[in-house]
Amino acid sequence: MFMRIDHVGIACHDLEEKIAFFERTFELTVVAREVNEEQGVKEAMLHIADGEGGGSYIQLLEPLGPDTPVGRFLAKRGEGVHHVAFGVPDVEEALETIGGRGVRLLDAQPRHGSMGSSIAFLHPKDVGGMLTELVQAPPRRPERS
Ligand code: V0V
Ligand code: CO
């Protein structure tokens, strides 16, 4: 069902500062940035590797406000790993299968994610405390600049 780890999402207070740290320290490169109003985040993807069906990334997340998933997370827990996202061939199919196995779905339908992907979240309380994201990459990733 899972083809790869698509990304690890990291919550932070200051996106620009964290991007600079990751670039400087780990020699990673930002390949996409987006403000996602629906998810309440400003995010940046730092490329790590390419694989079959899509790449893998670190996703840095800054909340658009305190009353958002990442805003509440920062207030409660501070900066750190917010979610792990797994690449799947078909998000709708994966949701149906995983939901059928008793895991609460935070999204009944796929939503818009980074770089044109389709995403959906699973409740962390049903996945051993890990907020889990399913990612279906678009047919072809946008060219890297
Ligand atoms: C909350 N909890 C977490 C958690 N966030 N546990 C593990 N990892 C997290 N990230 C725990 C929290 O400690 C509570 O447990 C319980 O879940 C309920 O949380 P809450 O404080 O009431 O917080 P809420 O109201 O924010 O609800 C949490 C959920 C919410 C996970 C339901 O954040 C959500 O719907 N998230 C999905 C959307 C999202 O996260 N979007 C941002 C990333 P105790 O204290 O009661 O034991 S956007 C993204 O990744 C994009 C765009 C992309 O990849 O392309
Ligand atoms: Co994510």
UniProtKB/TrEMBL annotation:
The keyword Isomerase applies. The keyword Isomerase applies. Keywords: Isomerase, Metal-binding. GO terms for molecular function: methylmalonyl-CoA epimerase activity. SUPFAM superfamilies: Glyoxalase/Bleomycin resistance protein/Dihydroxybiphenyl dioxygenase (SSF54593). InterPro entries: Glyas_Bleomycin-R_OHBP_Dase, MeMalonyl-CoA_epimerase, MMCE/EMCE_epimerase, VOC_core. Residues 4-137 form the VOC domain. PROSITE patterns: VOC (PS51819). Belongs to the methylmalonyl-CoA epimerase family. This is Methylmalonyl-CoA epimerase. It comes from Planomonospora corallina.
